[in-house]
Amino acid sequence: MIRVHEALANLLLVLPKNLFPFLLQHFAFGNALHDLRRSIRSGLQVLKDMILDYTSDVVPQGGGIHEITKYLLRYIMSLLDNGTSLKIILVGDEQDGKVAMETLQDIVATLISHLEIMLEKESQRYKDAGLKQMFMVNNVNFVLHQVEGSKIRYLLGDDWVLKHQDQMKDHISSFINISWESVMYCFHVKTNKIPIFSNLPTLQIFNLQFEKTYWTQKTWKVENPLLRSNMRKSVSEKLVQAYSTYLEKHKNKAPKLMKYTPEDLEKLLSDLFEG
Where does the Exocyst complex subunit Exo70 C-terminal domain start and stop, copy by copy (predicted)? Predict the structure, then answer.
């Protein structure tokens, strides 16, 4: 519709005036442009409302990137590709009683803000608390990556980027703390938090909890290769260090119950998040 408006507006400027011998026809042509502008502005508002209220039938398996996230970023790029025409459309007609309406920056910022609210609601549909964070990590990273590598960055500004980089760090930290909590807990308190294992030796509890968490998360997917590598590294550094420290402190007893060496853990963790 934006391109249709641009074509009609240009046509009105270049056509010989003798094609519009009567003022009425000229007025009707201009009125059609006015109606088209109103339709485009109305459509943008409808889209913002739809995103805010959206609920999907099924959330992405393994905490992957939501289709709405991909669609909206493509749509925003399309808006920017037609930015010059859209800026004209976003200026209200005098007969609407407004001179200035939303800017392109306002619209893009609102669309992404509504997407973030929708994603937060969608994340609550996952039963696993770690998977909720995995979903947010994937989707926030996708939005951030698209913004950083495109014209959207210049529209939203560096403060927006820095804020969302901090959000990413928080989501990753929350993911590790929540989803690996039961494994890490083995080394700190002997585990009234996991009463079913309370009479087992610490390393046996660790083996059970590690395998349960590992095989669960092996089916989860981090779609961005760099992010996947960084998250594996973050999990590995935290877990292997705690494990190695425990083995060192209990080196007289540990070998009898040790199923994994620290190197074994590193190798296993390097296969995480492939989906």
Answer: 28-271
How far is Cα of residue 267 from the mean position of the Cα atoms in its chain?
Answer: 28
- Please give the radius of gyration of the chain, using alpha carbons only, rounded to the nearest integer: 27
- A 10 A CB-CB count for 204 gives 14
- Domain range annotation of the chain: 1-179, 180-275
The token pair at 219 is 């089916």
Structure tokens at 56: 């999907």
What is the second-level CATH architecture of the domain 1-179? Up-down Bundle (1.20)
Q: What is the mean pLDDT of residues 27-50?
A: 71
Q: Name 221's bridge partners.
A: 274
172-182: per-residue pLDDT in tens? 999 999 999 88
Continuous H helices in 59-157: 67-81, 83-89, 104-123, 129-148, 152-156
Rounded to two decimals, what is the model's pTM? 0.80
